[in-house]
Amino acid sequence: MTSSDVTALVPGDVASRSARVGASLDPVAAASARVGFACARFNGGISVRLLDGALDALDLAGAGAASATVVWVPGAFELPLAAQRLVASGTVDAVVGLGAVIRGDTPHFDFVAGQSAAGLSRVMLDTGVPVVFGVLTTDTVGQALERCAAGPANKGYEAAMTALEMVGLLRALPAAVAARNGGA
Questions:
Q1: pTM of the full predicted structure?
Q2: Mean predicted confidence (pLDDT) in 68-90
Q3: Which terminal Cβ of the chain has fewer Cβ within 10 Å, N or C?
């Protein structure tokens, strides 16, 4: 199942729920964020399209693609290590892993997709730096191509916007907590 109008967040939902709680944060994307991209060369034609969408998102959000760092790894399985090193470099505020794992006739798909996702998640939780899973996991090449077409529906675009939003949230969170606690 995919997102649809039935599952979409309706305008006003966040504001109405925010009015019911003591503190609620929904900050805008951080335009000053430095984003690192770890891109897989395997299925690289998909990775390039995802990266194009991601760089378009940075430019549109005002973060500027020129401030991005891009590293290339052999495949999706290697993305977590590259993400970990990007974070450790101290030169990025968020990392986006980009690639495509397309189902074949063997269980290889399940191992690579699952370990890539788990590894990227681990880097994020271990470091406290946003690491976004921008790896397509599709049954066919056609499905992958649909998800990396130019425009805001490009999953690379979405992943970059998620990274910027998470940086904005994490920057705003300490101030909001301090304000709620009386500045303490």
A1: 0.90
A2: 98
A3: N
pLDDT band at 1 (very low <50, low <70, confident <90, very high): very low
Q: Which residue has the tokens 């290889």?
A: 108
Distance between CA atoms of residues 69 and 116, nearest Å: 20
* CB-side neighbour CA atoms (13 Å) of 67: 19
Residue 25 in domain: no
In a domain, 16, yes or no: no
- Within a domain: residue 59? yes
The enclosing domain of 39 has a CATH number of 3.40.50.960
pLDDT of residue 184: 56
Residue 108 is a catalytic residue:
yes
Query: What are phi and psi for residue 134, nearest 5 degrees?
Result: -110, 35
Residue pair 122/80 in contact by the 8 Å Cβ criterion: yes
Question: What CA–CA distances, in Å, run from 121 to 8, 65, 139, 165, 177?
Answer: 24, 24, 23, 17, 25
User: What total number of domains does the chain contain?
Assistant: 1
CB 80 within 8 A of CB 97: yes
CA R_g for the chain: 17
Active-site residue identified among 62, 88, 108, 149: 108
